[in-house]
Amino acid sequence: MDTWGRMELVGRPPTEEIVTEDEMHELLGSEAHPRHYIGLEISGFLHLGSLVSTGYKVNDLAKAGVDCTIFLADWHTMINDKLGGDMDRIARVADYYRRAFGAVCPTAEIITGTDLYDEHPEYWTELVRFTMHMPLARTMRALTIMGRSEDAEKLDLGKLIYPAMQAVDIHFLDVDIAHAGMDQRRIHMLVREIYPKMGWKVPVALHQRLLPGLSRPADSSAPAKMSKSDPGSGIFMHDTSDEVRSKIRKAWCEEKNTKNNPLLEIARQIIFHENKTMEVERPEKFGGNASYAGYAELEAAFGSGDLHPSDLKSSVARYVVPLVEGLADKASPGEEIRGIMGSRG
Fold it and tell me: Per-residue pLDDT tens for 290-303?
């Protein structure tokens, strides 16, 4: 595969941004197997966004010859008070994540923060050195990566270590491509700013579009992402087929509105990722069956009113239900994990 073919794989949806594309092109043109990482908190039930959309992007990178690593950030999960900050509970839920991502991304290496820090005892010394380049105000602004506000009165000191740890993880994993959702962009910009001061290799940053939640967005300019902690906002890997259909049927899908439409985004990131066309079945009186050869055609048909929300919903369900059913054995948490995480994780 030539460099442009590799770039096409790396840049296809759900990729939103590459910082920078020139650097990525140079990397793929010079390295047969560059190293990649994506880090995840172990903080809730896996859904279409956190597992499938993320996993599909990892698989794109793997097809492009990239050595991929999924980093299960157990220490970060503890610092962020997820799962009660209990490392035993976190480790057991990490096994569920490892099993699920292993099913979707069979070629990726999956490691935990504990694995990395045990292998590199010098990590902690370098972490302290890194923090000496981080102004406190910049650290406070970076707290949004962990879903926290900048309100100092509500923070313990441990929270301030989180952004620096996430940045230093990338160095110790020897990463060429740092991959995350758009909500993690700040940390990658911090990495690109401070790494040269440390004399460390600066990675290319790849940011993917987040899969929006199924509910009507409170802010149309910034829709809420599909959330692991909100059962109504997402399609979870342990949902039954009837639950998946019900959630899609109730999803926000305003007629002719293509902006931040969660079902269109599922089509873009999930359905068209694995299918060249998307088939819509409907009665002749409503236009008859239709076939869309790519996301742009589907979006145009919906935006013009040629495709009604109810037909989009039923079509999305026909693709998503078998996908969730097919992953159920490996990607469902099981009763023990459900008990550990509770209804909200």
Answer: 999 999 999 999 99
3-state secondary structure of 44: coil
Q: Residues 322, 323, 327, 331: is their CA dihedral positive or negative?
A: negative
Distance, CA of 10 to CA of 4 (rounded, Å): 10
DSSP percent split of the chain into helix, strand, coil, nearest 5: 55, 10, 30
Amino acid letter at 115? D
Those residues whose C-beta lies under 8 Å from the C-beta of residue 6, and which sit 6 or more positions away, are 28, 64, 65
Tokens representing 132?
């000496």
State pLDDT tens for residues 189-226.
999 999 999 999 999 999 999 999 999 887 765 667 77
Which pair of structure tokens corresponds to residue 260? 């931040």
Eight-state DSSP code of residue 236: B
The per-residue DSSP string of 56-122 comes to HHHHHHHHTT-B-EEEEEHHHHHHTTGGGG-HHHHHHHHHHHHHHHHHH-TTSEEEEHHHHHHH-TT
The answer to whether residues 15 and 206 touch, using CB atoms and an 8 Å cutoff, is yes
Task: State CA 81 to chain mean position distance.
Answer: 20
pLDDT of residue 281 exceeding 60: yes
Q: What phi and psi, each to the nearest 5 degrees, are found at residue 18?
A: -125, 125
Q: List the helix and strand counts (H, then E) for the chain.
A: 16, 8
Tokens 């976190």, located at residue: 90
Domains of the chain: 3-208 (3.40.50.620), 241-341 (1.10.240.10)
SS3 17: strand
Indicate the pTM of the whole model: 0.92
Identify the sign of the CA torsion 145, 182, 93, 108: negative
Distance from the Cα of residue 206 to its chain's centroid: 11
Residue 331 tokens read as: 């990607």
